[in-house]
Amino acid sequence: MASTEDKAAKQESATGWKDSFYNPRTGEVLGRTGSSWALILLFYLVFYCFLAGMFALTMWVLLLTLDDYVPKYRDRVPYPGLVIRPNSLDLSFNKSDPLKYVQYVKHLESFLQRYNDSQQDKNDDCPPGEYFLQDDTEDMSKKACLFKRGFLSLCSGLSDTNFGYSEGKPCVLLKMNRIIGLKPRGDPYINCTVKRDTPIQMQYFPSEGRIDKKYFPYYGKKAHESYVQPLVAVELLLTKDDYNKELPVECRVEGSDLRNNDERDKFLGRVTFRVTVVE
Ligand SMILES: *[C@@H]1O[C@H](CO)[C@@H](O)[C@H](O)[C@H]1NC(C)=O
Ligand SMILES: *[C@@H]1O[C@H](CO)[C@@H](O)[C@H](O)[C@H]1NC(C)=O
Ligand SMILES: *[C@@H]1O[C@H](CO)[C@@H](O)[C@H](O)[C@H]1NC(C)=O
């Protein structure tokens, strides 16, 4: 008894299902007539065209308000990281074997090409100690302050083309990452220390590792095309006693409001690298 009822129900639901897909009596497909379907399709077509149009319009308006020269939306100016050249956090070489340090020397030499007199003579000799503000100049492209590699004296690669590496007194160049609009307060300078008991003699170029305010603010890649970052060179005046040891060096930017002790970012305003010289 129950089984025949089941059968009937099954048959009914089967025809019901078929009918719901296409009902030959009314000519409905999935419960709707052809014209009803056509209307729905038309509605969605118009609806999506409208959405696409809205999207395109808002994008267009947004792009109109953007300026190639100035980034528009920035909530605050971030702090810069500190990086070194040669681009290695583990400088290790044999001072008697040029093959072992030639990579560092080549790297420094090519990095300093932009600081050649021939390049920097095009830039301005700005007054020291003050920001080089050009906010209200008509011209979209900004002028840059010159920084000649000669400022790095013994680490310029001009007097000593080996940057001290052949004498076991290697030069390391430091620079801050470019941050648009950054204006460091105070008088920033670089201070390097070797983390061990006996200190190591170091020499800074420019003197005292100063970073002049005139190289700030930076106005961005497109506006400030000939901008070069100010550099600080530190020469580690190692002696025989310092050879064959791994020396951990830490450099920080100090004397300003720039952060150099962030817990999470150990390259924010500071950098740590190792130097090993053998002879
Ligand atoms: C350094 O290079 C010199 C000259 O090639 C070589 O005599 C010396 O053994 C090297 N020192 C080390 C520690 O490899
Ligand atoms: C930069 O100066 C160095 C040393 O005077 C020279 O060898 C090099 O060719 C110069 N490079 C450019 C691009 O002027
Ligand atoms: C450089 O840093 C060391 C260690 O933090 C500190 O003792 C020294 O006074 C600093 N030198 C300068 C010139 O700030």
Automatic annotation (TrEMBL):
Superkingdom of the source species: Eukaryota
Listed InterPro entries: Na/K_ATPase_sub_beta, Na/K_ATPase_sub_beta_sf
GO biological process, one term: potassium ion import across plasma membrane
GO molecular function, one term: ATPase activator activity
Alphabetically ordered keywords of this record: Cell membrane, Disulfide bond, Glycoprotein, Ion transport, Membrane, Potassium, Potassium transport, Signal-anchor, Sodium, Sodium transport, Sodium/potassium transport, Transmembrane, Transmembrane helix, Transport
Bilayer-crossing regions: 37-66
One GO term describing the cellular component: sodium:potassium-exchanging ATPase complex
PANTHER family on file: SODIUM/POTASSIUM-DEPENDENT ATPASE BETA SUBUNIT, SODIUM_POTASSIUM-TRANSPORTING ATPASE SUBUNIT BETA-3
Purpose: This is the non-catalytic component of the active enzyme, which catalyzes the hydrolysis of ATP coupled with the exchange of Na(+) and K(+) ions across the plasma membrane. The exact function of the beta-3 subunit is not known.
Family statement: Belongs to the X(+)/potassium ATPases subunit beta family.
Full protein name: Sodium/potassium-transporting ATPase subunit beta
